[in-house]
Every structure is written in structure tokens, then in C-alpha cells.
UniProtKB/TrEMBL annotation:
It comes from Enteractinococcus helveticum. Belongs to the thiolase-like superfamily. FabH family. It is found in: Cytoplasm. The keyword Iron does not apply. The keyword Cytoplasm applies. GO terms for molecular function: 3-oxoacyl-[acyl-carrier-protein] synthase activity; beta-ketoacyl-acyl-carrier-protein synthase III activity. Pfam families: ACP_syn_III, ACP_syn_III_C. The active site is at 123, 277, 308. GO terms for biological process: fatty acid biosynthetic process. This is Beta-ketoacyl-[acyl-carrier-protein] synthase III. It comes from the Bacteria.
Length: 352
């Protein structure tokens, strides 16, 4: 039997976020644009969500177009070249191909041959990506990791659905994680509650879509596949149990946020910023109340004119906050994502 000793990655390196980049589509979609099909109004949407407008990409702009733009900006702001990146992680639930990954497309566009993979963790995907990038850097497996949250949710919207359609926007945010002399990313608090998987879901699976297509091809009758209450939509779209999701987010995720602060060894007053997933302004406000955030803590409120961009929402909120308040750079921020799965993830990070 061989007595050879395996080489293993071991370092004492800490990690931090070095830079953030963002891409926002130019198309603005107002509440009035969406209110008709859901028999609603601008006032109703504002009161329940805090959203005034949301940004959506045009048909010619793909998810990978947005992700690449955000990633390139983050790399440039970190003072790096694409060749310095040792891994690419893309958090998304809207890349239209089950395989290969959006991350592989991005790596190819950047001209680098590095590990590249997607994370399907919905609105917690970016925080999952940061957790993995932190581990890759601290283990020595990569010097720099590009983490991108990117969504084109408008491709999966049923405009007649009152549960979620008016919330959703498009966009991409990215960060570069690299080595640091001092810890810049805390221990992650992450997990799932899969028994409530169906609280946020797609209306149809790929297998169901295949069966529908085969039935139409066999019979030539498309009307037979329209289910009651489907509004005639065959394409799979997003739907949620709004009240149940709201209660889970407000009460359970506040506990996760508090645990994350405790794990990081910091108090709410030590924070410079709070960057929650941009799900709903009422949820954000309730978070701030339960965490007893002091007045000096800046709160990311990107949802008002970006909408809910799922995995892109936290890095986009960070991007905007630092653009508007650059003096926050170097301060500590609590970031927390939560969504379909149900899944959640959170860290305290030092702002780039």
C-alpha cells in the first residue's frame, strides 16, 4: 500500500470583496404599464411593495449580456485583468438552458479557461456565491473569484398573475472576491426549508412542457392544453404564495440576520450598511425595525425603481449605495438573501 502524502490546499489567507459592478437595462416599466392585466393600480402596487418602476431588458439583451457587463466592470474596478480571475460563479434561475452554464459562457467571453458554474439558489444565490468564493480564496484554490448575480425575470412573467408579476425586474450585479490581510467576509449563515418548496415556484416543469408540445403535435389542438386559471399561458412562469412568503421572510429571516451578526462578532451599531434582498419594501422596513438598526446604518432600497431582481438584487443594491454614498467604502455591511427553495444565505462583509 502506498504511503505517499497527498498535497492539500492550506493557507492562512483571509478574503474580502474587492470591487462591485452592475448592469441595469434602460427600459423602464411603470406600475401603470402593468396594472391593467392584474386589475390593479399604481397606488395598490406602491403600497404593497414600494415599487415605483422596474427595469427590464429588451428582447435583444440576453442574461449573459447583462452578466458579462457587470462582471467586466467589477474586474476593472478591482484593478485586475480577466486573466487574473481563477473561477467564475453565476447565480441565476433564468438562464434559459438547463446546461451548459451561464458561467461557462461568461468565462468564454472573458477568454479564460477556469472553473465556471451556476448556482440555482434564487434570491439567495448571490450570498451562496460569496460563501463559495470566500472558501475558494481562503483555501488557495483561486486568487480571485468573480461572483455574478444575473436575472432576466421578464422572460418568465405571466402579466396576468397578481402574486409576483408586478414585482420582477432584470439586471446583473457582480463582485470580485480576493485575498485580504484581515477578514472581510464573515462566516456565512445559510440553509433551506425544502418542505415549503412550492411557496415560490415555476408553474410548469420542462417535462410537462415536453408533454404539452407532444400532445399538440399529436392532435393539432392547442386549446386542449390550456388549464383552468392559466390565462391561456403555456410557457412556465413564476408564481408565489404571497402572504406565506411575506410571513416567512419577515419573521424567520430576521432571526437569520441576527444570527449572522452574532456569528460575525458584531453588533447592529457596528454596521455601515444593511443590504437585504430587494423583495418588498415592507419586508425591508420590518427587517430594519426588528434588527433595531441605528440611524447611521444606510439601508439598500434599490427596489423602488429596480424591482425585485432575485439573485442580482443584493449586488445591485450595493453598487447603487456605493455610487451614491462612496464614504461607506470600507465599512461593514450585513447582506441577506432569501427566496425560492425555500433557501437563505447571509454574511457580514466589508464594503469595497
Amino acid at each position: 500500500m502506498s504511503t505517499a502524502t497527498l498535497n492539500q490546499y492550506t493557507t492562512n489567507t483571509a478574503s474580502r470583496i474587492l470591487a462591485v459592478g452592475g448592469y441595469r437595462p434602460s427600459k423602464r416599466v411603470t406600475n401603470d404599464d402593468l396594472a391593467g392585466p392584474i386589475d390593479s393600480s399604481d397606488e395598490w402596487i406602491r403600497q404593497r411593495t414600494g415599487i415605483v418602476t422596474r427595469q427590464r431588458a429588451d428582447a435583444e439583451t440576453s442574461l449573459t449580456d447583462m452578466a458579462l457587463a457587470a462582471g467586466q466592470q467589477a474586474i476593472e474596478r478591482a484593478g485586475l485583468e480577466a486573466a487574473n480571475i481563477g473561477a467564475v460563479i453565476v447565480a441565476t434561475v433564468t438562464f434559459p438552458y438547463p446546461t451548459g452554464s451561464a458561467a461557462a459562457v461568461i468565462a468564454g467571453e472573458l477568454g479564460i479557461h477556469v472553473p465556471a458554474y451556476d448556482i440555482s439558489a434564487a434570491c439567495a444565490g448571490y450570498c451562496y456565491g460569496v460563501a463559495q468564493a470566500d472558501s475558494l480564496v481562503r483555501s488557495g484554490m483561486a486568487d480571485y473569484v468573480l461572483v455574478i448575480g444575473a436575472e432576466k425575470l421578464s422572460d418568465f412573467v405571466d402579466p396576468t398573475d397578481r402574486s409576483i408579476s408586478f414585482l420582477l425586474g432584470d439586471g446583473a450585479g457582480a463582485v470580485v472576491v480576493g485575498a485580504s490581510e484581515e477578514p472581510g467576509i464573515s462566516k456565512s449563515t445559510w440553509g433551506s426549508k425544502g418542505e415549503d418548496w412550492d411557496m415560490i415556484r415555476m408553474t410548469r416543469s420542462s417535462i410537462e412542457m415536453r408533454n404539452i408540445i407532444q400532445e399538440v403535435e399529436r392532435t393539432g389542438d392547442a386549446t386542449a392544453i390550456v388549464e383552468p386559471g392559466s390565462q391561456g399561458s403555456v410557457w412556465p412562469t413564476l408564481r408565489q404564495e404571497g402572504p406565506s412568503v411575506f410571513r416567512w421572510a419577515v419573521w424567520e429571516m430576521a432571526k437569520v440576520a441576527k444570527q449572522t451578526l452574532a456569528n460575525a462578532g458584531v453588533e447592529a451599531e457596528d454596521l455601515a450598511a444593511f443590504l437585504p434582498h430587494q423583495a418588498n419594501m415592507r419586508i425591508i422596513d420590518e427587517f430594519a425595525k426588528q434588527l433595531k438598526l441605528p440611524d447611521h446604518v444606510a439601508i439598500g432600497r434599490d427596489i423602488a425603481d429596480a424591482g425585485n431582481t432575485s439573485a442580482a438584487s443584493i449586488p445591485l443594491a450595493m453598487h447603487r449605495l456605493l455610487e451614491e454614498q462612496p464614504e461607506l467604502s470600507g465599512g461593514l455591511a450585513l447582506q441577506i438573501g432569501f427566496g425560492a427553495g425555500l433557501v437563505y444565505g447571509a454574511q457580514v462583509v466589508r464594503l469595497p
